[in-house]
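Here is one chain, start to finish.
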Amino acid sequence: KGEQLGVPNMEFIRDGDVFFEKLWTDIDTAQDYIWILTYHFDDTWVGDITMQKLIDAAKRGVHVVVMVDYLNFKMDYKLKLQLQEAGGYVYGIHPVLKLWKGRSIFRRNHQKIAVIDHNSFVGSANISSEYAGVKYGNWFFNDINMKFNGTLTEPSRDYIEKLAEYYELDIAAEKSKEYREKYKDDETDITLLTSDPVNKFQMTEEIIKMLEDATESISIVTPYYTKIDTVLKILKKKVSEGVNVEIITAKNRDQPIYKDWKNYDLFSDLIATGVEVYEIPDRYLHMKGYQIDDKLLTVGSFNNDHWSWRLNNEANIVTRNRELNKEFAKIREELRHNSRAVEIKPVKFSTFLKTKFWEYFADCCVVLMDYRSKRERDRHQL
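Its structure:
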């Protein structure tokens, strides 16, 4: 269930069914606008329910905007047309065949943000039955999402407008002037941390600083993991300084590049230096977060892999709020309780070959990503 915290107007939501019910309730009661930016939106039951509710909202005059990464723009075509006919703005953003203006085929829009009147959602779940629980889906992914009331709506709108402008999408942003004064955020110690084509190093720089400033503990929850040299160096250095470092990851992963990687091989160098690594053996872990000294927390869509670190557009929250940090520490403890420690052991030859193939593929992607990144830094004078 959604767990209301000792923080005004904010809650963590672990159950996928509860997440979608809260999202749908806000869509049903929206008066002025609904803006959704996500990585995956499909034609499963959850996707179709969401589309029908968006169509109904648009028909009653609500300003509806839906932006989905082109690779996973899989919503029902007829429902998409109905939403557009009702006045909604629907886009699959950054088609893979359009590589001009410094856009890279590797960059994906991996954020998960919804902002509806005075409410906002940030987290790791996409719009699909795979991210729901047993009521609306198949309880496939293990996610974490956050709902805010009167917090993060302004930066969320600004961010979506910024992306729409970059990708040259008409979302009738001028309409937002009508309700911007109506929906002002309350003061909070929670901020929206994002990366985008122009400022895509903001998140990596912030997370590097967080890791470097750790004095007691570093906890990383990441389903997808590749070896980031900068992170490896920091973690090994922190272990040598007496900082407790733990990583909670997935045993099973849904993406082809990760499927054959075994954690006892992937994390062997870190385990050898004293990093504690745990793997979730049953459901597909999908939540992502970094927590430093149990006092500084960032949670959202950002993975500890090459794509998030080097290229993707991502969105997290970051906070020093004591209650939120305490609650996330409880979630980590629950994950650790339902996981098992990863220990180094010999790798089968067949697994070794598969792993090396995908590592080589990832390394080639890194070369291309860095090449594109330099071109974009030059273009945008970063």
